Amino acid sequence: MKPMEGIKVVELSTMLAGPMTARILAEWGADVIKVETLNGDAWRKQAGTTLSPCTEQANPNFDMQNINKRFVSLNLRSEAGHEAMIKLLEGADVFLTNFRLQALEGMGLAYEQLKERFPRLIHASVLGYGDQGPDKDRPGYDYTVFFSRTGLMADLPPAGAGPLVPIGGIGDHSVAVALTGGIAAALYRREVTGQGDKVDVSLFQSGIFILTTGILNGFNGRTLPRTRLDCGHAGSNTYQGSDGEWFYLACIDYRRFPELCQLIGAPELAQNPRYSTSAAYYENRTELTKIFDDIFKRHTVSYWDELFNAHDMPHEVLRHFKDVPYDPQAQANHYTYFHEYEDGTKTVFSNGPVHFGSVDPAQIPCKISGPIGRDTDQVLQELGYSQEKIAEMHQAKEIR
Fold first, then answer.
1. 393 and which of 46, 346, 371, 398 could share a cystine (Cβ 3.0–4.6 Å)?
2. Are 107 and 76 in contact (CB under 8 A)?
């Protein structure tokens, strides 16, 4: 039995954070019914964001957020479409949405409007800036809230390089992991108390939490952004090999500094009073970084990687996005897998962020999305609608 087996989730969300939350829950065994408008989730048409192909059968950019769900298309502005939505909620354990409060209130789907009618329902929301404060009603994306508002985009790149160029979804997927955990906690509370709950995570909240160390640096007066010459200390920094590639050295423990110096062929550095104490090591970090730069440029990154691996010296080669799908460690743990659509389109997907002993990660299904409203008829039949009524609703454009 999967951890969320028997849990029904109704998802009314678009783009990334909400859909990815629901995708994780589906991977854990929940029956996720994604409700879309008649035009579908806007993310269906955003394949260019990841340079992914998009054909009638294959849409990997959309599927990455929406694997293993059922898809229903309702016109929520129509009486019949809204009624179908309420019927869905009657049998749901979780209602997951990233619609803003004003939109939910207009549809009668806000938490305050549902909590008495559905007292056991978990109402889970993705927010931009939070549900309080002057910006609670502003639209928010991970670029604008998670990256821009938190300081990540301005303070993380090297000084003088300009703002960080973000990759879409980092903030959204951070929210998804947090919200999934919040939903699980609320479901446990319901088992104990019998009562549902309101659970929300905002992009701003998630960004602040993840960047706690950076915010503490700023609070304590560190000048940001900074260069790699203004590092914590030279043993924890990036270095470039003779081949132009980079690695991160993480000799954090000062007690291993003499060993590091021996490995790189400069044992005299450990005896130099400018670096031979922990305080001096920090004080002269810029000078030592420049010395290390000259040493590490004598050999390729693969040379240093092999040497440090042989001596269990903490480090890692800076990989590229294109390398990750084929990483043997990722493959061995089923963190990534390859998928081929019926029309021959090939893609790579990532599995969710948690493994369970009760679930073989090699056997997690990959049921792709298909067209808008693929499962509308089936789901409505489960709710008690007759085939004749479903046909009428199609004709009236109340469903798709």
1. 398
2. yes
